[in-house]
Specification:
207 residues; alpha+beta; Jelly Rolls; 2 domains; 6-stranded antiparallel sheet; 11 strands; binds calcium ion
Length: 207
């Protein structure tokens, strides 16, 4: 014979059951909010995104990348640096050594597959002695082009990394106009100082 008090405890109180159901409903609602975004983010393959490749690139550059600087005197030194890395054994370093205004390490993709889509570029950046100023700073860069003409770009103009900073992950997004045929991505140092960059990632985003 079970005492009435014990029988009451045998099944969960009504309040607890209601709470469990509410929690389940909330988890389902959260999952519904999260999955559609995840489902439409598709990775874009990059060559040598962490600067670990031992294969030679073109013109002395790391495989998959091209060093670009403003015309004029050689003003930026581009080098793989095993003394600083976010992961693996080395990162890319850009250091200003002359008077010209910018140095960029870039990867160039066929833009047609991404025309009309939004892409998100992420990478880890570390900086040393980058001065404050209007035309200074480290940045991730994304540019949508048709041939040699810019259609749209994001150079982190309002969120440059300056001063001396430890590794931190940054992301930018760009909606590529439908006419895009060429996509340039990378990292840029404008003005003085040193920039290290490592572990690039890119994905298409279609919320
Ligand atoms: Ca690396």
């Amino acid at each position: 014979m079970v005492p009435p008090e014990a029988r009451m405890r045998a099944s969960p109180p009504r309040g607890a059951r209601a709470l469990g159901a509410a929690l389940r409903a909330r988890i389902i609602a959260l999952a519904a909010m999260t999955f559609p975004l995840a489902a439409f983010a598709a990775p874009v393959a990059l060559v040598n995104p962490g600067f670990e490749s031992k294969n030679p690139g073109e013109g002395g550059n790391p495989e998959g990348w091209v060093a670009i600087q403003h015309a004029g005197d050689e003003s930026y030194d581009f080098a793989l640096d095993s003394g600083q890395k976010r992961s693996g054994t080395q990162s890319m370093r850009i250091k200003r050594i002359g008077p010209e205004p910018y140095g960029t390490i870039a990867q160039i993709l066929d833009g047609a597959p991404y025309a009309g889509k939004t892409v998100r570029l992420s990478a880890w950046i570390r900086t040393e002695s980058i001065p404050d100023g209007r035309n200074t700073g480290a940045a991730l860069v994304l540019a949508a082009m048709r041939g040699g003409s810019f259609l749209a770009h994001d150079f982190m103009t309002r969120s440059r990394v300056r001063g001396t900073t430890d590794w931190q992950r940054y992301s930018i997004e760009l909606k590529l106009p439908p006419a895009t045929t060429r996509l340039e991505l990378g990292a840029m140092l404008e003005g003085a100082g040193t920039l290290w960059v490592d572990d690039f990632e890119m994905e298409t985003v279609e919320p």
